[in-house]
Each structure stands twice: as structure tokens, then as C-alpha cells.
Amino acid sequence: MAAAETDFLSTPLLSSDVILAVNDDPNTVEAISIIDDEFGHRFPSGDDGNRNPYSLIGVHDVFELPPSSTVDPFKNHTSEIEGLYEWVKILFCLPIAAVRLALFGLFLAVGYLATLLALWGWKEKQNPMPKWRTRVMWVTRFCSRGILFSFGYHWIKRKGKPAPREIAPIVVSNHISYIEPIFFFYDLFPTIVSSESHDSMPFVGTIIRAMQVIYVDRFSKLSRKNAVNEIKRKASCNQFPHLLLFPEGTTSNGRAIISFQLGAFIPNYPIQPVVVRYRYVHFDQSWGNITLGKLMFRMFTQFHNFLEVEYLPVVLPHENRKENAIQYSERTGRVIASALNVVQTSHSYGDYMLLERAVELKQENPSLYLVEMAYIQSSLHLSASETVDFLDIFLSMDPDLSGYVTFHGFLKSLKLKPCGFSEKIFNFLDLQKIGKITFKQFLIGSARVLKQPAFQQACDLAFKLCDIEEKHHVLNQEFLDAISLSIPFSNLNEIHGLFALFDGDGDGRINKMEFISCLRRYPLLIALFAPKLANFPANENYIPT
């Protein structure tokens, strides 16, 4: 039979991004999404509406899942005391640990008092520190070397030399433990970039203020911008000391380096990279999935801890060709990774937040929930806090020991019932078609829906379709009617769990704020309204407010 001739009518939800195809056969009406190709031409995406419940808002049937790294850059490999030798050594070193603890307290107290003297009466802290105050700070610097000694770093192997400040005003280093900042304080007395939370720490807050610290709130765009401006200002003036940054933004275990933040590279000044190594047999000194107290105790109860610091050749910005901060950071990252003979991954501080949350929720293998957040943030524009929220939802689905969630767990968390449409939603995420999904699949699939340009418009229109009487709230029966084309709930009792998910304050009705908030938290649920949205009358001429 000859192909039926087809006319296309736009649906108002996405203006011309989604169309209704009306064939010669009066019983056939199809929703076809329109995709822009790389040249700006618009064309139907094909019959993915039968499989993909998100085609209406422009999500393609298959999304790319980047390969996952097998490296856990935050894992401390000796977080538990294992082996007879280690237990005997700790018992033998307990009296030594008591002496070391006393020395640590003594050096910290003397250094703190010297810092108070150096800061006394100093008001012009935006200017370089006067020479006499800098000389007083030498007392604190020697005390910091004493603190390292008390932690078991009796000698420290040092390769290379710091470049003169005039040649390389910025120093960057990999970050493994709290030991490196103490070493660099002694060796360079640099200006550092630090989290605002460190200012309130006893003793430490006062000492880092003497370093003319640049505070930054990693979650504030304005704070990051101000920090970059301050880095530029201090790097341009040779009266200030070196600027020290740990571009990873958090500690890793030294078996890889993670993605770099760009603050050190945006000013486009020469940079001296430094690599720090902790060689060990029985005790991993990295500050990863181990508490600070336990890490300090283990350091105090070792005969000796090994630290090696290597100053690498200066990395110069390209002057003859354009190079942005990302390319400059990648080039510097390759230098550091090569010197350490490790790989650089796309993990970031956001992954550490996920790891902490998984540990807090008592997951047996929290490393399963690392997703390489640098990729997620750059490609999907999803924040770390949003990602942690998605992890909470995923963990409510009761993943197995391998980190997989089944169809049953998925439905239970989202308060859905088994049916063909629920399978469409799940299959959208189940790229391997094995009946199970990982957190990374759930996260990227949800983010692709949430970050679609048409998502907010679809949410506004879905609420309008539910609130048919325009009373600015939705009741049980109206909600049931709105999703009846998707999920075959037979009565109000069956829909109670899903309705409660939307009804944030539990007052028996859903206002628009609750409705939108729920869909932003559970973006996959926008699919429930897709059949209604596809049939929205063209003469309504609705424009979301």
C-alpha cells in the first residue's frame, strides 16, 4: 500500500519543536519531535515517541553514557589497622606518641603566640606584610617544621628548588593530606587560597590569616570571581609572597590526580607545579575516607613517615597562540600527572560530597556512587548539591551491593505501579537493557530531562492541565484524571503515594510551587503528563508565565 500523505501541525508546547503528524488515515495521529541539526535545519526525529516518553520536550531516545573510571581517588587503602606487625608497632609507639603529642601542642602554642605578635596592631592587611612582621613569622615557620617532626616527618626529601617569585608567582601542587600546607608554610610562607570555613578554626584560623589568605566559597559564583581578582592582584605585585593553590580543591589518595579548578590559571601567569609523594608500606597517609583523628593517631604511632616534595620546571602560558584557562590547566595537569606517573580523572570535590553522603547513609561500597562530577558539571550544568539530592533519591530505591537498582525498586521510590508506561520511563535509563540501572545512568538521564530548555515550560503547562478550574491548586481527582492516560490508576487510594510526593505540606492539595518543586526533584515524572501535553488543544494559545 502506498505511503499515506502526511501534513504537519505544530503543538503549542514547544512551538515548532514538536509537531503532530496527521495522516490520511483519520485514526492515526502521531507525536513527532523536531531536532535541529548542526546546520540549523529542522527535521522529525522519527518514531521515538513509542519508546521515549521524553521526546515531547526534546530529549532524544538514546543519551551518551561516558565510560566510568575504575579509580577511586579518595580511598585510603589502610583506613583500618590490619596485621600483627601494625598492631605491635602501634602498642610499642604509644609512649612515643604521647611525647609527640606534647611536642605538637608545644610547637602549636608557640607558633600561635608568635603569629599573634606578628599580627598585633596590623590594620592594612590588603598590603604586603611589613618586613619586621615577616621576620617574626619565622618563629611560626620553624614551629611548623617542629609540628611536622612531631608527626613523624623527621626528614623530608626535597627535589628541585622553588622558582624566584618574579619568574613564577603562582605555585600549584597535588593535595593528599593536611601535611602539605604545613610544609609549604615552612618552606615558602605563601599566600594561600582557602575555604572560608577555615577562618573559624582554633589556632589555624589565626595562622592562615597571617598568610594573607584569599578566602573563597566554592559554591558561590561571586565569591569565586572575587577570589580570582584577588589572585590576579597579588600575583602582579612582587612585594607579596608566592601564591599557593591546590587546584584539585580537595585531597586525593595520590594514586591519581582529579580535575583542576581554574582559579590558578585564569590570571595567565607562569606557574611552578610541585608534586608531593608519600611512600608507605603499612600506612597510607592520604586524607580520604578516614577521619582526621584516626589519621593523626596513625601518624603519631609510626616510627617514621616518608614525605617527598619535588619542585618541577615552570610552566609558561603560551604567548604566541591563544590558550584559555581550561587548556592551561590541562597542560599543567599533564605535567603533574606525568611526574607522579598517574592518570588525571574527571572527579572533583562534588564526587567527595557524594562519597560522604553514601558513607553517611551506610552504603557498603560508597565508591560505586562516584560519577566524575567535572564531566557532569561541564556537560549537563548540574551542581554538586543537585547531584547529592539525586543520590538520595537513588539510594531510596534500595540498590544492591553492586550499586544496581531494579525495576521494582525504581517504581517503589517514585510511587508508580507496573505498567507499559512505567517500563518506558525505566527503559529510557536502562541503556544496557538488563533490567537494572546504575546511579550514573539515573543521574545523567534525570539531568538530561531537567536541563532541557522546554522543561520549565512543560511543568507550567502540566500544572495548567491539572488545574482545569483555575483555582491555583490540584486535588486528588484532578491529579488522577491528568495522568490517567499514562498510568492506569483505578481509584484514589492507588494514587495516594504519588499524590503525597507532590503534596509537599500534606494539606491534601497541590499548589503550583509544590508541583514544580516536585518535578524539579523528580524530573522523570514529567513523563506522566506527556500524553496530555501532546493532546493540548492548539487553539488554547497558552503562554507560560
What key attributes describe this structure?
40% helix; 7-stranded mixed β-sheet; single chain; alpha/beta; 4-stranded antiparallel β-sheet; disordered N terminus; 545 residues; 17 strands; disordered C terminus; elongated
Report on the structure:
The protein has helices spanning 84-119, 131-150, 179-187, 204-210, 221-235, 292-300, 325-340, 349-360, 373-380, 384-395, 407-414, 420-429, 439-450, 455-466, 476-483, 496-502, 512-521, 530-534, and strands at 6-10, 18-23, 29-36, 42-44, 157-159, 170-173, 191-195, 214-216, 243-245, 256-257, 271-277, 308-311, 343-344, 405-406, 436-437, 473-474, 510-511. The model is unreliable at 1-49 and 538-545 (pLDDT under 50). By secondary structure, it is α/β, with parallel strands linked by helices. Helix content is 40%, strand content 12%. The protein has a 7-stranded mixed β-sheet, with helices on one face.
List the helices and strands and how they pair.
Layout: E1 6-10, E2 18-23, E3 29-36, E4 42-44, H1 84-119, H2 131-150, E5 157-159, E6 170-173, H3 179-187, E7 191-195, H4 204-210, E8 214-216, H5 221-235, E9 243-245, E10 256-257, E11 271-277, H6 292-300, E12 308-311, H7 325-340, E13 343-344, H8 349-360, H9 373-380, H10 384-395, E14 405-406, H11 407-414, H12 420-429, E15 436-437, H13 439-450, H14 455-466, E16 473-474, H15 476-483, H16 496-502, E17 510-511, H17 512-521, H18 530-534
Parallel strand pairs: 5-12, 6-9, 6-11, 7-8, 7-9, 10-13
Antiparallel strand pairs: 1-2, 2-3, 3-4, 11-12, 14-15, 16-17
Helix pairs in contact: 1-2, 1-4, 2-3, 8-10, 10-13, 14-17
